[in-house]
Design goal:
This protein has 2 helices and 7 strands. By secondary structure, it is mostly beta strands. The protein has a domain of about 60 residues: OB fold (Dihydrolipoamide Acetyltransferase, E2P) (Beta Barrel).
Length: about 140
């Protein structure tokens, strides 16, 4: 008896089967299932915990540790150190209010002021690149504020 397969080809069946045998032949064979865990040998490697996640930083942001606080001419400055780099000074930008200033030993997120490798300077806020709009409109000739 010819049978039409899904790909469009025609195959001829073998000898005809009895109705009871025909139903069994259409079912997939029964394969005993074995849980995957029991079929694998026990792992001798210890489980490694993932490292604690920190919030993602902007490209120019860094985490520094506060080493020392000092005040010069009424402005607060901090000696800070980025991991693997020499100590630098955090003295630029607008600092937070006095009651929210970091303490010695705290880790804080700040911005790089430039890429000086010997004594890296840091700033509190993001530096505005030259030519970027600063929020103040430039006056034209003859215009008043």
């Amino acid at each position: 008896m010819p049978l039409r397969w899904p790909a469009g080809e025609i195959r001829y069946s073998g000898p005809t089967l009895e109705p009871a045998d025909a139903e069994e032949s259409l079912l997939p064979p029964i394969v005993p299932t074995v849980p995957l865990e029991s079929s694998l040998p026990p792992s001798s490697l210890p489980e490694i915990a993932p490292p604690p996640t920190r919030p993602a930083l902007a490209p120019d942001q860094v985490r520094v540790k506060v080493l020392e606080q000092r005040e010069i001419a009424g402005k607060v400055q901090f000696f800070v150190q980025e991991e693997g780099k020499p100590r630098g000074v955090l003295a630029y930008g607008v600092p937070p209010p006095v009651d929210k200033l970091p303490q010695v030993g705290d880790e804080i997120t700040v911005y790089r002021n430039n890429q000086d490798a010997r004594s890296p300077p840091y700033r509190w806020d993001r530096r505005v690149p030259p030519g970027a709009p600063s929020g103040r409109r430039r006056l034209r000739r003859g215009e008043r504020r």
